[in-house]
Amino acid sequence: MAKKTSKAKGGGGGKKQHADSGGAGRQSKPKKGSGKGRHGARRKELRQEMKESQRKRQKRAHGKEVEETRQRLRLKLLERQLSRGPGASPGELRRQLLVEAAQLQSKNGRPKVALQWLQEALDLQPDDTEFHVRTSLLCLYMDRAMAEEAASLLKGPLFTSIHDASASAESGDGGSAAETTARKAHEAKTAGCYSIALLSYISVHVLMEHKKPKAQKEAAQRLLERLRKAHAQNPFIAEFLAFAPAFEPTFPFGCELPEYEATAEEALLLEALSYCCQWGVRGQAPVWLDTDDNVRRFLRETLFEGDEDAAPLAPLPEPQPQEAQVLQRWRRAREEAMQLWAAEMSQDAGLTGAEEALEEELDFTDDDVLND
Predict the structure, then answer these.
(1) Were both Cys, which of 111, 215, 263, 329 would link to 210 (CB 3.0–4.6 Å)?
(2) What is this structure's pTM?
(3) What is the pLDDT of residues 103-130, one digit of tens each?
(4) Are 234 and 271 in contact (CB under 8 A)?
């Protein structure tokens, strides 16, 4: 019995010793927990930021759903009115309905139906006095790779009449209606200049339609002239296209844009974003980028690296404390574009150096070895 008592005491002593050592371990934990107190406030701030960001996303998503529902209902109403035939509405009213319905169909990704309605609207008013049809029609042709139809439209009176016009994106002099018409005329000229430049690029560099050296040289010269004319019409479009990977995250294809602002710089920026991200189905930038892998490099080298004396990018107004959001976002995208530009130039220089080294190696013959 005495032995059992001794063992029990010994075991109890072991437990007590283990408990003491555990207690010693627990005494060191407050030091580890002190870090939690230091970083608790920061984690709370991060949680609040995440909740606020999620709330904003949900609000934007809800607003987008409401807008999509409104557009869907509006389109159904327009389709019902148009289905009654030309006799149910006067010519001008039907033309307006066709133009509005075509715009909604483009947003919904149904360019074929939109083209049919725009063509009917153009038949009702062939001169397109208010510039409601020609720009949308041209961009949809380009979207669907209808090069012959696009070229025919560009060579027709709707675009040749404004080819040398001095339409401006700035505010007009004759009230809101005149301002809108002047802006749309400038948009049509911009779309025409860039579309014909793109068709020329496809002809020269993609399809290589010109076989004889003289014809090739003339076609290449026409391409340069048309591209420089488009750049002069709106330089921000060329900047977006040449550095699209830097601009696209900030201005996604198909994104919504604010209404036109009063200043000329903001108007040109919004026109550029409309062309690149909206006109057609999801903007004309995807049409350019789908041509081949070298189009961005060609634009960059032709327009931004050729003249060392000229400023490569169009100037932006001086930053203001409360400037338009589109200007702020463009500045951020331009910073990314500068980094992309530097990286691509470095890569091009590396490739050029490797090619030259390869040529030197190929030219190095056995005779050269003997001469050494």
Answers:
(1) 215
(2) 0.74
(3) 898 888 899 999 999 999 999 999 999 8
(4) yes
